[in-house]
Amino acid sequence: MTGVVCHGVTARYNGTTVLGGVDLVVEPGEWVVVVGPNGAGKTTLLRALAGVIPAGGEIALGDRELADLRRREVAARVAVVPQTPVVPEGVAVFDYVMLGRTPYIPYWGMEGPVDRLRVNEVLERLDLASFAARPVSALSGGERQRAVLARALAQDASILLLDEPTTALDLGHQQQVLELVDGLRRESQLVVISTLHDLTFAAQFGDRVILLADGVVAAEGPPEMVLQADVVSRYFGATVEVVAGPDGPLIVPVRSSRSSP
Amino acid sequence: MSTVALTSARTGPRPGPIVISVGVLLLAAVGSLVLGPAGVSPWGAILETLDHIPFVAVDSGLSTQEAAIVWQIRVPRMVLAGLVGATLAGSGAAYQGVFRNPLADPYLLGVAAGAGLGATIAIVSGLPSSTIAPLAFTGAVIAVVAAYGLASLGGSRRSGATLILAGVAVAAFFTALQTYLQQQHADTIRQVFSWILGRLSTTGWGDVRTLLPYAIVSWLVLFAYRRHLDVMAVGEEEASTLGIHPARVRLVVVAGATLGAAAAVAVSGLIAFVGIIVPHIARLVTGPSHRVLLPVSLTGGAAFLMVADLVARTVQSGGEVPIGVITAFVGAPFFAFILATRREVAT
Protein backbone atom coordinates (compact mmCIF):
# COMPACT_ATOMS: atom_id res chain seq x y z
CA MET A 1 0.00 0.00 0.00
CA THR A 2 1.51 3.27 -1.10
CA GLY A 3 0.49 6.58 0.40
CA VAL A 4 -0.56 9.75 -1.35
CA VAL A 5 0.99 10.80 -4.63
CA CYS A 6 -0.11 14.09 -6.19
CA HIS A 7 1.16 15.82 -9.23
CA GLY A 8 0.31 19.33 -10.40
CA VAL A 9 -2.80 19.71 -8.27
CA THR A 10 -4.73 22.84 -9.17
CA ALA A 11 -7.94 24.32 -7.82
CA ARG A 12 -9.93 27.42 -8.63
CA TYR A 13 -12.48 29.25 -6.56
CA ASN A 14 -14.75 31.86 -8.17
CA GLY A 15 -12.33 32.25 -11.04
CA THR A 16 -9.29 32.75 -8.83
CA THR A 17 -6.51 30.19 -8.79
CA VAL A 18 -6.14 28.91 -5.23
CA LEU A 19 -3.80 26.01 -5.94
CA GLY A 20 -1.36 26.53 -8.77
CA GLY A 21 0.11 23.05 -9.25
CA VAL A 22 1.11 21.26 -6.05
CA ASP A 23 3.25 18.13 -6.06
CA LEU A 24 3.15 15.99 -2.95
CA VAL A 25 4.24 12.47 -2.04
CA VAL A 26 3.52 11.10 1.42
CA GLU A 27 4.47 7.60 2.52
CA PRO A 28 2.52 5.38 4.92
CA GLY A 29 3.42 6.21 8.52
CA GLU A 30 4.63 9.65 7.55
CA TRP A 31 3.25 12.90 8.95
CA VAL A 32 3.47 15.88 6.65
CA VAL A 33 2.51 19.26 8.04
CA VAL A 34 1.32 21.91 5.62
CA VAL A 35 2.05 25.42 6.85
CA GLY A 36 1.59 28.78 5.25
CA PRO A 37 -0.02 32.16 5.78
CA ASN A 38 -3.78 32.66 5.71
CA GLY A 39 -5.14 32.20 2.21
CA ALA A 40 -2.14 30.17 1.03
CA GLY A 41 -4.42 27.29 -0.03
CA LYS A 42 -3.76 24.85 2.84
CA THR A 43 -7.40 23.94 3.48
CA THR A 44 -8.09 23.87 -0.26
CA LEU A 45 -5.29 21.33 -0.69
CA LEU A 46 -6.82 19.07 1.95
CA ARG A 47 -10.28 19.44 0.39
CA ALA A 48 -8.83 18.57 -3.02
CA LEU A 49 -7.17 15.45 -1.57
CA ALA A 50 -10.48 14.45 0.02
CA GLY A 51 -12.21 14.88 -3.31
CA VAL A 52 -14.84 17.29 -2.03
CA ILE A 53 -13.91 20.07 -4.45
CA PRO A 54 -13.10 19.76 -8.14
CA ALA A 55 -9.36 19.83 -8.69
CA GLY A 56 -7.03 19.52 -11.63
CA GLY A 57 -3.85 17.48 -11.84
CA GLU A 58 -3.33 13.93 -10.68
CA ILE A 59 -4.12 12.62 -7.22
CA ALA A 60 -3.48 8.99 -6.38
CA LEU A 61 -4.69 7.52 -3.08
CA GLY A 62 -2.85 4.30 -2.53
CA ASP A 63 -3.08 2.26 -5.70
CA ARG A 64 -6.00 4.12 -7.26
CA GLU A 65 -6.62 7.50 -8.87
CA LEU A 66 -8.97 9.70 -6.86
CA ALA A 67 -10.90 10.51 -10.03
CA ASP A 68 -11.71 6.81 -10.57
CA LEU A 69 -13.04 6.22 -7.07
CA ARG A 70 -16.65 6.39 -6.03
CA ARG A 71 -17.56 8.59 -3.04
CA ARG A 72 -17.77 5.60 -0.68
CA GLU A 73 -14.43 4.25 -1.90
CA VAL A 74 -12.80 7.63 -1.25
CA ALA A 75 -14.28 7.70 2.25
CA ALA A 76 -12.84 4.23 2.94
CA ARG A 77 -9.37 5.58 2.05
CA VAL A 78 -9.40 9.16 3.30
CA ALA A 79 -10.76 10.37 6.63
CA VAL A 80 -11.05 14.08 7.29
CA VAL A 81 -11.03 16.00 10.55
CA PRO A 82 -12.37 19.41 9.55
CA GLN A 83 -11.25 22.63 11.19
CA THR A 84 -14.69 23.44 12.57
CA PRO A 85 -16.74 20.26 12.57
CA VAL A 86 -20.51 20.58 12.48
CA VAL A 87 -21.76 19.17 15.77
CA PRO A 88 -25.34 18.00 15.36
CA GLU A 89 -27.55 18.75 18.34
CA GLY A 90 -28.38 15.83 20.59
CA VAL A 91 -26.41 13.12 18.77
CA ALA A 92 -24.71 10.68 21.15
CA VAL A 93 -20.96 10.11 20.84
CA PHE A 94 -21.52 6.48 19.86
CA ASP A 95 -23.91 7.40 17.06
CA TYR A 96 -21.63 10.22 15.95
CA VAL A 97 -18.62 7.91 15.70
CA MET A 98 -20.82 5.39 13.89
CA LEU A 99 -21.18 7.96 11.08
CA GLY A 100 -17.58 7.07 10.27
CA ARG A 101 -18.74 3.56 9.31
CA THR A 102 -20.87 4.97 6.47
CA PRO A 103 -18.54 3.73 3.70
CA TYR A 104 -18.95 0.13 4.95
CA ILE A 105 -22.67 0.13 5.66
CA PRO A 106 -24.73 -1.10 2.68
CA TYR A 107 -26.49 1.73 0.87
CA TRP A 108 -29.98 0.72 1.98
CA GLY A 109 -28.82 -1.05 5.11
CA MET A 110 -28.02 -0.42 8.74
CA GLU A 111 -24.84 -0.95 10.69
CA GLY A 112 -24.03 -4.48 11.82
CA PRO A 113 -22.10 -6.11 14.68
CA VAL A 114 -18.76 -5.51 12.97
CA ASP A 115 -19.45 -1.78 12.81
CA ARG A 116 -20.52 -1.64 16.45
CA LEU A 117 -17.42 -3.58 17.46
CA ARG A 118 -15.18 -1.23 15.55
CA VAL A 119 -16.83 1.84 17.07
CA ASN A 120 -16.40 0.40 20.54
CA GLU A 121 -12.72 -0.30 19.83
CA VAL A 122 -12.15 3.24 18.65
CA LEU A 123 -13.98 4.67 21.66
CA GLU A 124 -11.81 2.57 23.97
CA ARG A 125 -8.65 3.62 22.16
CA LEU A 126 -9.48 7.33 22.50
CA ASP A 127 -10.74 7.06 26.10
CA LEU A 128 -14.25 7.93 25.07
CA ALA A 129 -16.01 4.75 26.15
CA SER A 130 -17.53 6.38 29.21
CA PHE A 131 -18.87 9.20 27.01
CA ALA A 132 -20.58 6.88 24.51
CA ALA A 133 -24.10 7.83 25.47
CA ARG A 134 -23.43 11.54 26.00
CA PRO A 135 -24.39 14.07 23.32
CA VAL A 136 -21.34 15.30 21.40
CA SER A 137 -22.63 18.84 21.84
CA ALA A 138 -22.30 18.46 25.62
CA LEU A 139 -18.60 17.55 25.54
CA SER A 140 -15.74 19.91 26.34
CA GLY A 141 -13.52 21.13 23.52
CA GLY A 142 -10.85 18.48 24.02
CA GLU A 143 -13.34 15.62 24.35
CA ARG A 144 -15.21 16.85 21.31
CA GLN A 145 -12.04 16.90 19.23
CA ARG A 146 -11.35 13.32 20.32
CA ALA A 147 -14.87 12.39 19.22
CA VAL A 148 -14.26 13.89 15.79
CA LEU A 149 -10.96 12.03 15.61
CA ALA A 150 -12.75 8.85 16.68
CA ARG A 151 -15.23 9.27 13.83
CA ALA A 152 -12.31 9.62 11.42
CA LEU A 153 -10.61 6.51 12.83
CA ALA A 154 -13.83 4.52 12.56
CA GLN A 155 -13.57 5.08 8.80
CA ASP A 156 -10.57 2.68 8.81
CA ALA A 157 -8.94 4.87 6.19
CA SER A 158 -5.22 4.70 5.58
CA ILE A 159 -5.02 8.44 4.99
CA LEU A 160 -5.89 10.96 7.67
CA LEU A 161 -6.34 14.62 6.78
CA LEU A 162 -6.43 17.05 9.69
CA ASP A 163 -7.30 20.70 9.13
CA GLU A 164 -5.99 22.69 12.10
CA PRO A 165 -6.87 19.94 14.59
CA THR A 166 -5.86 22.07 17.57
CA THR A 167 -8.10 25.07 16.86
CA ALA A 168 -9.99 26.18 19.96
CA LEU A 169 -8.06 23.89 22.31
CA ASP A 170 -5.93 25.01 25.22
CA LEU A 171 -2.23 24.23 25.17
CA GLY A 172 -2.48 20.98 27.11
CA HIS A 173 -5.27 19.65 24.93
CA GLN A 174 -3.42 20.73 21.79
CA GLN A 175 -0.49 18.57 22.88
CA GLN A 176 -2.76 15.67 23.83
CA VAL A 177 -4.50 15.64 20.45
CA LEU A 178 -1.23 15.85 18.52
CA GLU A 179 0.39 13.09 20.61
CA LEU A 180 -2.68 10.97 20.04
CA VAL A 181 -2.47 11.43 16.26
CA ASP A 182 1.23 10.67 16.41
CA GLY A 183 0.60 7.43 18.29
CA LEU A 184 -2.18 6.39 15.93
CA ARG A 185 -0.15 6.94 12.78
CA ARG A 186 2.70 4.84 14.20
CA GLU A 187 0.32 2.04 15.27
CA SER A 188 -1.52 1.85 11.96
CA GLN A 189 1.05 3.27 9.54
CA LEU A 190 -1.36 6.04 8.58
CA VAL A 191 -0.56 8.73 6.10
CA VAL A 192 -1.14 11.93 8.05
CA ILE A 193 -1.40 15.27 6.29
CA SER A 194 -2.31 18.16 8.53
CA THR A 195 -2.33 21.89 8.45
CA LEU A 196 -1.08 23.63 11.58
CA HIS A 197 -0.79 27.29 12.43
CA ASP A 198 1.61 26.67 15.30
CA LEU A 199 5.00 26.35 13.66
CA THR A 200 6.65 24.89 16.75
CA PHE A 201 4.11 22.07 16.80
CA ALA A 202 4.62 21.70 13.05
CA ALA A 203 8.35 21.22 13.70
CA GLN A 204 7.80 18.84 16.63
CA PHE A 205 5.26 16.54 14.99
CA GLY A 206 5.90 16.75 11.26
CA ASP A 207 8.39 14.41 9.61
CA ARG A 208 8.35 16.94 6.83
CA VAL A 209 7.00 20.44 6.50
CA ILE A 210 5.51 21.87 3.33
CA LEU A 211 5.29 25.63 3.12
CA LEU A 212 2.48 26.78 0.86
CA ALA A 213 2.35 30.35 -0.34
CA ASP A 214 -0.10 31.67 -2.93
CA GLY A 215 -1.13 28.16 -3.83
CA VAL A 216 2.30 26.77 -4.65
CA VAL A 217 4.94 24.94 -2.63
CA ALA A 218 7.46 27.58 -1.56
CA ALA A 219 9.63 25.25 0.51
CA GLU A 220 9.59 21.62 1.48
CA GLY A 221 11.77 19.44 3.65
CA PRO A 222 12.63 18.50 7.22
CA PRO A 223 11.30 21.04 9.76
CA GLU A 224 14.68 22.52 10.63
CA MET A 225 15.35 23.22 6.95
CA VAL A 226 12.04 24.86 6.15
CA LEU A 227 11.32 26.69 9.37
CA GLN A 228 14.12 29.22 9.42
CA ALA A 229 13.73 32.75 10.69
CA ASP A 230 14.18 34.44 7.33
CA VAL A 231 11.72 32.04 5.62
CA VAL A 232 9.08 32.62 8.29
CA SER A 233 9.67 36.34 8.06
CA ARG A 234 9.33 36.37 4.27
CA TYR A 235 6.21 34.25 3.96
CA PHE A 236 4.34 35.02 7.16
CA GLY A 237 5.46 38.63 7.62
CA ALA A 238 6.31 37.59 11.17
CA THR A 239 9.31 38.39 13.29
CA VAL A 240 10.56 35.24 14.99
CA GLU A 241 13.60 33.73 16.51
CA VAL A 242 14.29 30.08 15.85
CA VAL A 243 15.80 28.31 18.84
CA ALA A 244 17.08 24.76 18.82
CA GLY A 245 14.82 22.63 20.99
CA PRO A 246 14.87 19.01 22.16
CA ASP A 247 12.32 17.89 19.52
CA GLY A 248 13.19 20.24 16.70
CA PRO A 249 13.32 23.99 16.25
CA LEU A 250 11.21 26.23 18.48
CA ILE A 251 9.75 29.11 16.55
CA VAL A 252 9.39 31.97 19.01
CA PRO A 253 7.61 35.19 18.08
CA VAL A 254 9.41 38.37 19.14
CA ARG A 255 8.30 42.01 19.13
CA SER A 256 9.77 43.57 16.01
CA SER A 257 10.35 46.91 17.79
CA ARG A 258 12.60 45.16 20.29
CA SER A 259 14.28 42.72 17.94
CA SER A 260 17.09 45.11 17.02
CA PRO A 261 18.86 46.49 20.08
CA MET B 1 -18.77 -5.03 30.18
CA SER B 2 -20.48 -1.85 31.20
CA THR B 3 -19.38 -0.28 27.94
CA VAL B 4 -21.06 -2.95 25.91
CA ALA B 5 -24.28 -2.65 27.85
CA LEU B 6 -24.21 1.11 27.55
CA THR B 7 -23.51 1.21 23.87
CA SER B 8 -25.91 -1.51 22.91
CA ALA B 9 -28.53 0.52 24.69
CA ARG B 10 -27.57 3.46 22.48
CA THR B 11 -27.64 1.64 19.22
CA GLY B 12 -30.21 -1.08 19.58
CA PRO B 13 -33.73 -0.31 18.45
CA ARG B 14 -35.29 2.20 20.80
CA PRO B 15 -38.91 1.23 20.39
CA GLY B 16 -40.36 3.27 23.27
CA PRO B 17 -41.38 6.38 21.31
CA ILE B 18 -42.65 4.28 18.42
CA VAL B 19 -44.81 2.14 20.69
CA ILE B 20 -46.19 5.22 22.44
CA SER B 21 -46.98 6.99 19.18
CA VAL B 22 -48.75 3.91 17.81
CA GLY B 23 -50.79 3.80 21.02
CA VAL B 24 -51.71 7.46 20.61
CA LEU B 25 -52.64 6.80 16.99
CA LEU B 26 -54.96 3.95 17.98
CA LEU B 27 -56.65 6.15 20.58
CA ALA B 28 -57.11 8.93 18.02
CA ALA B 29 -58.50 6.43 15.52
CA VAL B 30 -61.01 5.02 17.98
CA GLY B 31 -61.97 8.55 19.01
CA SER B 32 -62.71 9.67 15.49
CA LEU B 33 -64.59 6.43 14.89
CA VAL B 34 -66.98 6.63 17.82
CA LEU B 35 -67.57 10.39 18.02
CA GLY B 36 -69.80 12.17 15.55
CA PRO B 37 -73.09 14.00 15.22
CA ALA B 38 -75.09 10.99 13.96
CA GLY B 39 -75.44 9.33 17.34
CA VAL B 40 -74.31 5.87 16.26
CA SER B 41 -73.55 3.62 19.23
CA PRO B 42 -69.77 3.77 19.89
CA TRP B 43 -69.42 0.03 20.37
CA GLY B 44 -71.43 -0.59 17.22
CA ALA B 45 -69.14 1.72 15.25
CA ILE B 46 -66.08 -0.20 16.42
CA LEU B 47 -67.64 -3.59 15.65
CA GLU B 48 -68.82 -2.39 12.25
CA THR B 49 -65.26 -1.31 11.41
CA LEU B 50 -63.79 -4.60 12.63
CA ASP B 51 -66.31 -6.43 10.48
CA HIS B 52 -64.66 -4.98 7.37
CA ILE B 53 -61.27 -6.35 8.26
CA PRO B 54 -60.57 -9.45 6.13
CA PHE B 55 -61.34 -12.76 7.87
CA VAL B 56 -63.11 -10.96 10.70
CA ALA B 57 -66.86 -11.28 10.87
CA VAL B 58 -68.79 -9.70 13.73
CA ASP B 59 -72.33 -8.45 13.98
CA SER B 60 -72.28 -4.78 14.84
CA GLY B 61 -76.02 -4.62 15.44
CA LEU B 62 -76.22 -1.36 13.48
CA SER B 63 -78.93 -0.54 10.99
CA THR B 64 -77.98 -0.40 7.32
CA GLN B 65 -78.01 3.38 7.47
CA GLU B 66 -75.83 3.52 10.58
CA ALA B 67 -73.45 1.01 9.08
CA ALA B 68 -73.15 3.22 6.00
CA ILE B 69 -72.43 6.24 8.18
CA VAL B 70 -69.59 4.34 9.82
CA TRP B 71 -68.09 2.68 6.76
CA GLN B 72 -68.73 5.33 4.12
CA ILE B 73 -68.27 8.49 6.20
CA ARG B 74 -66.40 8.05 9.46
CA VAL B 75 -63.86 5.39 8.55
CA PRO B 76 -62.75 6.86 5.21
CA ARG B 77 -62.55 10.30 6.80
CA MET B 78 -60.48 8.93 9.66
CA VAL B 79 -58.19 7.08 7.26
CA LEU B 80 -57.86 10.13 5.03
CA ALA B 81 -56.98 12.36 7.99
CA GLY B 82 -54.39 9.80 9.03
CA LEU B 83 -52.85 9.55 5.57
CA VAL B 84 -52.71 13.31 5.07
CA GLY B 85 -51.33 13.93 8.56
CA ALA B 86 -48.74 11.20 8.29
CA THR B 87 -47.60 12.30 4.86
CA LEU B 88 -47.32 15.99 5.75
CA ALA B 89 -45.48 15.26 9.01
CA GLY B 90 -43.15 12.72 7.40
CA SER B 91 -42.35 15.13 4.57
CA GLY B 92 -41.76 17.90 7.10
CA ALA B 93 -39.33 15.76 9.09
CA ALA B 94 -37.49 14.87 5.89
CA TYR B 95 -37.30 18.48 4.70
CA GLN B 96 -36.05 19.60 8.11
CA GLY B 97 -33.43 16.88 8.08
CA VAL B 98 -32.17 17.33 4.57
CA PHE B 99 -31.97 21.12 4.82
CA ARG B 100 -30.84 21.07 8.47
CA ASN B 101 -33.36 23.82 9.00
CA PRO B 102 -35.90 23.77 11.83
CA LEU B 103 -38.19 26.14 9.93
CA ALA B 104 -38.48 23.80 6.96
CA ASP B 105 -41.89 22.30 6.28
CA PRO B 106 -43.37 20.37 3.34
CA TYR B 107 -44.33 23.65 1.67
CA LEU B 108 -40.76 25.01 1.73
CA LEU B 109 -39.99 24.67 -1.96
CA GLY B 110 -43.29 25.90 -3.33
CA VAL B 111 -45.64 22.91 -2.93
CA ALA B 112 -48.32 25.09 -1.33
CA ALA B 113 -48.05 27.96 -3.79
CA GLY B 114 -47.98 25.63 -6.78
CA ALA B 115 -50.92 23.58 -5.54
CA GLY B 116 -52.81 26.78 -4.73
CA LEU B 117 -52.27 28.07 -8.26
CA GLY B 118 -53.30 24.75 -9.81
CA ALA B 119 -56.46 24.53 -7.73
CA THR B 120 -57.32 28.18 -8.42
CA ILE B 121 -56.93 27.63 -12.16
CA ALA B 122 -59.30 24.66 -11.96
CA ILE B 123 -61.86 26.59 -9.91
CA VAL B 124 -61.86 29.89 -11.79
CA SER B 125 -61.94 28.18 -15.18
CA GLY B 126 -65.12 26.42 -14.17
CA LEU B 127 -63.56 23.01 -14.75
CA PRO B 128 -65.25 20.02 -13.11
CA SER B 129 -64.33 19.73 -9.43
CA SER B 130 -62.64 16.40 -10.20
CA THR B 131 -59.87 18.37 -11.92
CA ILE B 132 -58.94 20.35 -8.81
CA ALA B 133 -56.81 17.60 -7.27
CA PRO B 134 -54.83 16.70 -10.42
CA LEU B 135 -54.18 20.37 -11.22
CA ALA B 136 -53.17 21.10 -7.62
CA PHE B 137 -50.81 18.12 -7.67
CA THR B 138 -49.35 19.21 -11.01
CA GLY B 139 -48.89 22.80 -9.81
CA ALA B 140 -47.12 21.61 -6.65
CA VAL B 141 -44.73 19.39 -8.58
CA ILE B 142 -44.05 22.10 -11.18
CA ALA B 143 -43.22 24.58 -8.41
CA VAL B 144 -40.63 22.29 -6.82
CA VAL B 145 -39.11 21.37 -10.18
CA ALA B 146 -38.93 25.10 -11.00
CA ALA B 147 -37.20 25.78 -7.68
CA TYR B 148 -34.65 23.05 -8.42
CA GLY B 149 -34.11 24.40 -11.94
CA LEU B 150 -33.68 27.94 -10.66
CA ALA B 151 -31.19 26.86 -8.02
CA SER B 152 -29.13 24.90 -10.51
CA LEU B 153 -28.68 27.95 -12.76
CA GLY B 154 -25.94 29.02 -10.36
CA GLY B 155 -23.93 25.88 -11.06
CA SER B 156 -24.25 22.20 -10.43
CA ARG B 157 -22.78 22.38 -6.92
CA ARG B 158 -25.82 24.16 -5.57
CA SER B 159 -26.21 24.17 -1.82
CA GLY B 160 -29.30 23.63 0.25
CA ALA B 161 -29.49 27.35 1.06
CA THR B 162 -29.63 28.26 -2.64
CA LEU B 163 -32.45 25.80 -3.11
CA ILE B 164 -34.44 27.26 -0.22
CA LEU B 165 -34.07 30.76 -1.64
CA ALA B 166 -35.10 29.54 -5.09
CA GLY B 167 -38.15 27.95 -3.45
CA VAL B 168 -39.02 31.28 -1.82
CA ALA B 169 -38.81 33.03 -5.20
CA VAL B 170 -40.92 30.42 -6.96
CA ALA B 171 -43.51 30.43 -4.16
CA ALA B 172 -43.79 34.23 -4.30
CA PHE B 173 -44.25 34.14 -8.07
CA PHE B 174 -46.88 31.39 -8.01
CA THR B 175 -48.71 33.05 -5.13
CA ALA B 176 -48.79 36.30 -7.07
CA LEU B 177 -50.32 34.54 -10.08
CA GLN B 178 -52.81 32.77 -7.85
CA THR B 179 -53.85 35.98 -6.10
CA TYR B 180 -54.28 37.75 -9.41
CA LEU B 181 -56.49 34.98 -10.79
CA GLN B 182 -58.48 34.95 -7.60
CA GLN B 183 -59.09 38.71 -7.74
CA GLN B 184 -60.11 38.53 -11.40
CA HIS B 185 -62.78 35.95 -10.58
CA ALA B 186 -64.36 37.35 -7.46
CA ASP B 187 -67.40 35.10 -7.87
CA THR B 188 -65.35 32.03 -7.02
CA ILE B 189 -63.34 33.62 -4.23
CA ARG B 190 -65.21 31.75 -1.52
CA GLN B 191 -64.59 28.41 -3.17
CA VAL B 192 -60.88 29.15 -3.64
CA PHE B 193 -60.57 30.31 -0.08
CA SER B 194 -62.28 27.23 1.28
CA TRP B 195 -59.84 25.05 -0.68
CA ILE B 196 -56.86 26.98 0.63
CA LEU B 197 -57.98 26.60 4.25
CA GLY B 198 -57.95 22.85 3.83
CA ARG B 199 -60.74 20.34 4.23
CA LEU B 200 -61.20 16.59 4.14
CA SER B 201 -63.77 14.98 1.90
CA THR B 202 -67.04 14.11 3.57
CA THR B 203 -68.00 10.84 1.95
CA GLY B 204 -66.55 7.77 0.36
CA TRP B 205 -63.17 6.25 -0.24
CA GLY B 206 -62.22 8.14 -3.43
CA ASP B 207 -59.65 10.47 -1.90
CA VAL B 208 -58.12 7.68 0.14
CA ARG B 209 -57.65 5.63 -3.01
CA THR B 210 -56.15 8.64 -4.79
CA LEU B 211 -53.69 9.49 -2.05
CA LEU B 212 -52.67 6.04 -0.81
CA PRO B 213 -50.22 5.02 -3.57
CA TYR B 214 -48.40 8.37 -3.47
CA ALA B 215 -48.27 8.32 0.31
CA ILE B 216 -46.82 4.81 0.40
CA VAL B 217 -44.16 5.59 -2.21
CA SER B 218 -43.25 8.77 -0.34
CA TRP B 219 -42.96 6.98 3.02
CA LEU B 220 -40.86 4.19 1.52
CA VAL B 221 -38.43 6.63 -0.09
CA LEU B 222 -38.02 8.63 3.11
CA PHE B 223 -37.65 5.52 5.23
CA ALA B 224 -35.03 4.11 2.86
CA TYR B 225 -33.02 7.30 3.32
CA ARG B 226 -33.34 7.54 7.10
CA ARG B 227 -29.66 6.77 7.73
CA HIS B 228 -28.53 9.15 4.99
CA LEU B 229 -30.54 11.87 6.67
CA ASP B 230 -28.64 11.19 9.90
CA VAL B 231 -25.34 11.55 8.03
CA MET B 232 -26.53 14.80 6.45
CA ALA B 233 -26.80 16.24 9.97
CA VAL B 234 -23.06 16.99 9.93
CA GLY B 235 -23.43 19.26 6.90
CA GLU B 236 -22.88 18.67 3.22
CA GLU B 237 -19.10 18.72 3.06
CA GLU B 238 -18.55 16.41 6.04
CA ALA B 239 -21.30 14.10 4.81
CA SER B 240 -19.45 13.96 1.54
CA THR B 241 -16.18 12.98 3.25
CA LEU B 242 -18.13 10.22 5.02
CA GLY B 243 -19.03 8.68 1.68
CA ILE B 244 -22.43 9.97 0.62
CA HIS B 245 -23.50 12.30 -2.17
CA PRO B 246 -25.32 15.15 -0.41
CA ALA B 247 -26.83 16.59 -3.61
CA ARG B 248 -28.13 13.17 -4.64
CA VAL B 249 -29.58 12.43 -1.21
CA ARG B 250 -31.23 15.85 -1.21
CA LEU B 251 -32.73 15.30 -4.66
CA VAL B 252 -34.18 11.90 -3.76
CA VAL B 253 -35.49 13.01 -0.37
CA VAL B 254 -37.01 16.20 -1.78
CA ALA B 255 -38.60 14.19 -4.59
CA GLY B 256 -40.06 11.67 -2.14
CA ALA B 257 -41.28 14.30 0.31
CA THR B 258 -42.71 16.44 -2.50
CA LEU B 259 -44.58 13.53 -4.05
CA GLY B 260 -46.32 12.81 -0.75
CA ALA B 261 -46.95 16.43 0.20
CA ALA B 262 -48.27 17.34 -3.25
CA ALA B 263 -50.68 14.40 -3.24
CA ALA B 264 -51.82 15.19 0.32
CA VAL B 265 -52.38 18.84 -0.54
CA ALA B 266 -54.18 17.90 -3.74
CA VAL B 267 -56.88 15.99 -1.84
CA SER B 268 -57.02 18.06 1.35
CA GLY B 269 -56.02 21.63 0.52
CA LEU B 270 -53.39 23.54 2.42
CA ILE B 271 -53.53 22.16 5.93
CA ALA B 272 -51.04 24.26 7.83
CA PHE B 273 -48.76 23.51 10.73
CA VAL B 274 -48.85 19.70 10.76
CA GLY B 275 -45.68 19.42 8.69
CA ILE B 276 -43.71 21.71 10.95
CA ILE B 277 -44.83 21.06 14.52
CA VAL B 278 -45.35 17.31 14.48
CA PRO B 279 -41.73 16.55 13.51
CA HIS B 280 -40.52 19.01 16.15
CA ILE B 281 -42.60 17.43 18.89
CA ALA B 282 -41.50 14.01 17.67
CA ARG B 283 -37.86 15.08 17.76
CA LEU B 284 -38.19 16.25 21.36
CA VAL B 285 -39.35 12.74 22.25
CA THR B 286 -37.13 10.64 20.00
CA GLY B 287 -33.90 12.60 19.65
CA PRO B 288 -32.36 13.45 16.31
CA SER B 289 -32.06 10.02 14.66
CA HIS B 290 -34.37 9.72 11.67
CA ARG B 291 -34.71 5.98 12.25
CA VAL B 292 -37.07 6.74 15.09
CA LEU B 293 -37.99 10.27 14.14
CA LEU B 294 -39.54 9.34 10.78
CA PRO B 295 -41.84 6.57 12.04
CA VAL B 296 -42.89 8.66 15.04
CA SER B 297 -43.55 11.65 12.78
CA LEU B 298 -45.72 9.49 10.52
CA THR B 299 -47.81 8.02 13.33
CA GLY B 300 -47.84 11.30 15.28
CA GLY B 301 -48.93 13.26 12.22
CA ALA B 302 -51.71 10.78 11.57
CA ALA B 303 -52.92 10.96 15.16
CA PHE B 304 -52.66 14.75 15.25
CA LEU B 305 -54.76 15.25 12.13
CA MET B 306 -57.35 12.68 13.22
CA VAL B 307 -57.82 14.60 16.46
CA ALA B 308 -57.82 17.96 14.67
CA ASP B 309 -60.47 16.65 12.28
CA LEU B 310 -62.51 15.32 15.16
CA VAL B 311 -62.45 18.76 16.74
CA ALA B 312 -63.16 20.45 13.39
CA ARG B 313 -66.36 18.49 12.84
CA THR B 314 -67.68 18.38 16.39
CA VAL B 315 -66.72 21.66 18.06
CA GLN B 316 -69.37 23.74 16.29
CA SER B 317 -72.87 22.37 16.02
CA GLY B 318 -74.37 22.43 12.55
CA GLY B 319 -71.17 22.97 10.63
CA GLU B 320 -67.51 22.31 10.27
CA VAL B 321 -64.63 24.55 11.18
CA PRO B 322 -61.91 24.36 8.49
CA ILE B 323 -59.38 21.80 9.65
CA GLY B 324 -56.47 24.12 8.83
CA VAL B 325 -57.83 26.54 11.42
CA ILE B 326 -57.94 23.78 14.01
CA THR B 327 -54.43 22.51 13.33
CA ALA B 328 -52.99 25.96 13.92
CA PHE B 329 -55.38 26.87 16.75
CA VAL B 330 -54.71 23.67 18.68
CA GLY B 331 -51.20 23.08 17.41
CA ALA B 332 -49.62 26.45 18.16
CA PRO B 333 -50.38 26.58 21.90
CA PHE B 334 -49.57 22.89 22.29
CA PHE B 335 -46.25 23.41 20.57
CA ALA B 336 -45.49 26.45 22.73
CA PHE B 337 -46.33 24.42 25.83
CA ILE B 338 -44.02 21.59 24.77
CA LEU B 339 -41.18 23.98 24.04
CA ALA B 340 -41.59 25.78 27.36
CA THR B 341 -41.77 22.66 29.52
CA ARG B 342 -39.01 20.96 27.59
CA ARG B 343 -36.60 23.82 28.14
CA GLU B 344 -37.13 23.56 31.89
CA VAL B 345 -36.25 19.90 31.77
CA ALA B 346 -33.18 20.55 29.64
CA THR B 347 -31.75 23.28 31.88
The CATH architecture of chain B can be named as Orthogonal Bundle
Mean pLDDT of chain A: 92
Number of helices of chain B: 15
Note the run of SSEs of chain B as H and E: HHHHHHHHHHHHHHH
CATH topology of chain B: ABC transporter involved in vitamin B12 uptake, BtuC
Notes on the protein architecture:
The complex is a heterodimer of chains A (261) and B (347). Chain A is α/β, with parallel strands linked by helices and 261 residues long. Chain A has one domain (4-259): Rossmann fold (3-Layer(aba) Sandwich), CATH 3.40.50.300. Helix content of chain A is 34%, strand content 28%. Chain A has a six-stranded mixed β-sheet with strand order 6-7-8-3-9-10, with helices on both faces. The mean pLDDT of chain A is 92. With 347 residues, chain B is an all-alpha fold. Chain B has a single domain (17-33, 40-340), classed as Orthogonal Bundle (ABC transporter involved in vitamin B12 uptake, BtuC), CATH 1.10.3470.10. The longest helix of chain B is centred in the first third of the chain and has 36 residues, at 64-99. The relative contact order of chain B is 0.16.
